Amino acid sequence: MSKITVLYGDHVTVSRQRMLEIVSAARKKGWEILREITTTDSLFATERLFVIEDASQLTEKDFDQDINVLIWQKNQIPASLKKILPKDTKYEEFKLPVVIWKFLDTFSLRLFHEVCQKEAVEFVFALMARQVRDLYWVSSDPKTFAGPAWRKSRLVSQAAKYGELKLKNVIQKLAQIDVAAKTGEADLTTSLDLLIVKELE
Predict the structure, then answer these.
(1) Please, which residues bridge with residue 72 across strands?
(2) What residues have CB less than 8 Å from 171, skipping those under 6 apart?
(3) Given CA atoms 138, 141, 143, 148 in this order, what sign does their dihedral have?
(4) What pLDDT is stored for residue 47 in this prediction?
(5) 125/177 Cα distance (integer angstroms)
(6) 109-116 helix and 188-195 helix, angle to the nearest 10 degrees
(7) One GO MF term, please (predicted)?
(8) In sequence order, which ranges of 96-182 are alpha helices (DSSP H)?
């Protein structure tokens, strides 16, 4: 019988770290690590761990074998995947802390610093960039936004505070901050401080 573990949730940095920990522990036990499920027996009498980061190609037949499978799923588990997973599958969910969602909803400078005490500023920057992109999306072309209705409603309300042109300008500034931080021309935290104070808070 297959032993399957699925790591998922919106806190992708933590879920990915958990995946690496499991893989590392398996390697220390002498297990063979494979990146796709095959029906070929191992050349050696060793346990194998199949690590799957793109579960879109998996089928129900893949789990007919007596194998160990670790699936890393970014964000939520698609219904199509959950449907084919065995009933005894182990699930580990990794949620973003509530304070992060509060920060993204308000762009509060105080909450920004609170979040950065526990999360890498690069990760916070990526979340900010995604949030501003989605705000611009619902502001400029709301009909094509593909997110859940509840999130779209919240984004529309937040986007109204800034307007389409300002959001477009913020996206450009975020791109400039990204380049400056990566080339060592500016400190990322300081740059985001200024952006929040001047444009978002």
Answers:
(1) 7
(2) 129, 132, 133, 136
(3) negative
(4) 87
(5) 10
(6) 160
(7) DNA binding
(8) 98-106, 109-116, 121-140, 149-159, 164-182
- Please, are residues 15 and 28 in contact by the beta-carbon 8 Å criterion? no
127 φψ region: left (φ > 0), alpha (ψ -120 to 50), beta (else): alpha
Amino acid at 185: E
- Provide the edge-to-edge strand list for the sheet that holds 3-9: 32-34, 48-52, 68-74, 3-9, 90-93
Q: Which domains are assigned to the chain?
A: 3-93 (no CATH), 98-200 (1.20.272.10)
Residues in contact with 68: Cβ distance below 8 Å, sequence separation at least 6, in sequence order = 2, 3, 4, 26, 31, 47, 48, 49, 50
Task: Report phi then psi at 107, rounded to 5.
Answer: 50, 40
